[in-house]
Amino acid sequence: MNAMHTIIVVVQVLSALAIIGLVLIQHGKGADMGAAFGSGASGSLFGASGSSNFLSRFTAVAAAIFFVATLALAFLGSRPATGTGGVMDKLPASGIPVQSAPATPAAPAASAPAAPAAPAVNSPVPASAAPAAPGQSGQIPK
């Protein structure tokens, strides 16, 4: 499918370049008046009246090819992706081992949490520095 997308993009770019070139080569509406006084339309490659018909028809064909390629790209872009999974699933497996967390910590089953001891009167640690309850020792007071 990727090759088909690339081919359609190449066809679209080539047809766009052909349209640009053909439009720049064509004479405008006001060029016919100058050609009537002999400014070179009779000496053109396709003759006096053949250039406009050939160039306009070839421009129409290039435009039709461009529109078909655009519709094909829109059709291919609107279809859902066929692959399953995300971007990370397509990465190669690395050689770095993954460490897993231990299943359960070893703790005695029958022991109850100890109550915090009341600070002694002559304790070197002030009472405000002692933890208020188990599990709150790492929290910042508000």
TL;DR of this structure?
This protein is mostly helical. Helices cover 42% and strands 0% of the residues. The radius of gyration is 41 Å and the shape is elongated.
Low-confidence stretches: none
Order of helices and strands: HHH
Strand fraction: under 5%
Helix content: 40-55%
DSSP summary, beta strand count: 0
Which structural class is indicated by helix and strand composition? mainly alpha
**Envelope shape:** elongated
Rg calculated over all Cα atoms = 41 Å
Could you describe the 3D structure shown?
This protein has helices at residues 2-25, 31-36, 50-78. The chain is mainly alpha-helical. The chain has a domain at 48-78. α1 runs antiparallel to α3 (50-78). It is elongated. The model has no long low-confidence stretch (mean pLDDT 73).
Can you tag this structure with a few keywords?
elongated; 142 residues; 0% strand; 42% helix; single chain; mainly alpha
List strands and helices in order, with pairings.
Elements: H1 2-25, H2 31-36, H3 50-78
Helix pairs in contact: 1-3
